[in-house]
Amino acid sequence: MDGVTHTRTTRLERGRGALGPALELVHTGRAPTRAVLTSELGVTRATAGAVAAELEALGLITVDAHPTAAAGTQGRPSHRLFIADQGPVVLAVQIHADGYRVALVGLGGRIVATTSGCGTIPADPARILSEAVRAGSGLLRDSGRQCLGAGLAVPSAVAEPDGEALNPLHLAWPAGAPVRALFLQALADAKVPGVTEHVGFSGNDVNLTALAEHRHGAGRGARDLLCVASGHRGVGGALVLDGRLHSGSSGLALEVGHLTVNPEGAPCHCGSRGCLDVEADPLAFLSAAGRTPGPEGSLLKQATDLLREEYADASVRAAGELLIDRLGLGIAGLVNILNPDRIILGGLHRALLEADPERLRAVVADRSLWGRSGGVPILPCTLDHNALVGAAELAWQPVLDDPLVVLEGERTG
Amino acid sequence: MDGVTHTRTTRLERGRGALGPALELVHTGRAPTRAVLTSELGVTRATAGAVAAELEALGLITVDAHPTAAAGTQGRPSHRLFIADQGPVVLAVQIHADGYRVALVGLGGRIVATTSGCGTIPADPARILSEAVRAGSGLLRDSGRQCLGAGLAVPSAVAEPDGEALNPLHLAWPAGAPVRALFLQALADAKVPGVTEHVGFSGNDVNLTALAEHRHGAGRGARDLLCVASGHRGVGGALVLDGRLHSGSSGLALEVGHLTVNPEGAPCHCGSRGCLDVEADPLAFLSAAGRTPGPEGSLLKQATDLLREEYADASVRAAGELLIDRLGLGIAGLVNILNPDRIILGGLHRALLEADPERLRAVVADRSLWGRSGGVPILPCTLDHNALVGAAELAWQPVLDDPLVVLEGERTG
DNA sequence: GTGTTTTGTTCACATCGGATACAAAGTCAG
DNA sequence: CTGACTTTGTATCCGATGTGAACAAAACAC
Hints:
Oligomer: homodimer
Distance between the termini of chain A: 31 Å
């Protein structure tokens, strides 16, 4: 009741095995109380209590002192479990077409602090990464929080196991830039407190969007989640299976941009024609609507603004419907291959879904085999800065897998 | 040394947690000795010894009395672990275009006994299933083995969670036939000893081929395994991820037959044109080679015979290359989406691969993004009766997950 | 108030696997 | 052939972890 006394370390270690799963439940908002924790973990109340006490002792969660009685329920009210107010954070970095954004992200995907900058030297990945990491390091110093890791999101396929950005199309980076190594180097140079050499992770931004939405957004509760999004140029996809990102044997899974959705379509750099990449991205939409891309605002912003503000216009509507049909064809192909529980859409595709939800769902259902798997729910992304939160998820993963190893390592190191 | 005395049941239960993983290692041939078991499980020699003793006491494995010294190694020779000679089996049933085949399958994918029959009434799934199960029941009686479950393979997509055959194209069955329920009913009617109501599983034959090859064939050791095969009509796909079949949220994943591989191709019943289903199956090959399907022998047999015996013929060779190119395009599309470790091909596609391995690999590499994931190994299936062995794998799975629960249940039930 | 229901804690206990020491069975060097 | 070395297998102790039962606490129902 009055806090663990810490006289015996043996006592502290109680429930170590269930610690990770328990933290993950709190992290994803599926364990509001110890009672729920008990049933979700499938353990006894004694164990759940010990686990919660342990997580509290580690400074990761807090248990409210005065339980609030839920209306209409009998029995003793549950104490609620919260993510600790001043708990540790991870550093998340996102590189995009216009620069970078960094954030400190706590458990539960909570953005504690964030800042951004424009990429003055977009052709030099090392420089922008080091600039971003320095900004993050500053945030960290100001916040006074403990840092347990770092994650990076880039708008490119990232090849495993070395973490090279294979197609940083709209960054003017050299193809094959070793972003993971550069990120680790930047972390080491900035001497970010708490970030040791083995806690830097990186991934494709759509992958990380999917991960974030799965844990904290529209994908919560789905077992197999497919995410499709278009940000600037091209189309990206991602798949979460059983709570884990599926990035394939060399990190190159879900490169969905080259599904054929229009056999008579425009030629694509891949050698084929009518690929999703060139038929369903912001530029394709602007062209279809008869607009010329302007100099200000990203292609995504111009396209989504047009969709949201001028959908009554016949040419805009026709362009929207054309893109919905093509996107639907691509998604139906993916549904036939992957048969996911749920699909979430980001970027331009989210705007297309919101402009005419029924049309997209109808196209997907129509082109899916036997209609059954075509009934899959299609939802828009819900989180702000989801790629950033996803990058943080990568960094949190070791803690969720085994909180003690990471935190004890911090303590002793 | 001289067998467990069973005086204390507590002794018997030693190492229960590691029992399933250990059995799986022996089952898949990855644990020839206790020493290997120790390292593969990541436990101490003491635990591995206890686990092996427990598996032996359960009658699942045997340990040889006199260890054979491996040449050129120092130290005490290891006793080898074998799958028990007279251990339990599962009943596997496969329905195909020409009838059925049943087998008793032991651990390690070993076919202990098998028989087959032709489907006299192909339009009536209940009747052929009951005939097959009766044949299996006879095999079981003759063998005197204990039976721990049953599995069924059908040449159709099987929808979860109810197990309906959605497209039994070449069986003349009604679409949507509840094959799982019918199979369970047939098992109950035949009163197959040891097969209780909850141990009947069913799945698509290509899925089960992939599972069998992953465990015991060309897919061994792969983490993410893609299988593509064409038997009679159409093309099927399957995916094994982390040792588990990925069949999607409603069992309809990997319906790869409707990937577009020839935009100007023949119309498909799905409404599109140039689908893999109609461009790369045995009928497509025979047509491309200018042959008319004859009345005797399945389409698959006619096609593979032609490929193997007359590949020197210019028209056959041209047809083969045409199909390889289309198949390669389809596989490249899948590689871009799934990025598997390894690909295995069955049926006609296996024959195509064997006719000209380099051409297929070159096409896949050429059409895969960045070449990297195009370097994925492509291999032919290696097992006999692989769908049957895969059906058995489904039935073995509960035993591999927890041998004690299944075997204790048998004992007490 | 007195029961009932649900939540949380304490404590004894069983289970599981690790660590260590020891025993066994071979190779290798002389 | 003998002894040193290497590797495998076993016995035993012990710590880590979670269960079960009993008890206590905090609400509602009457």
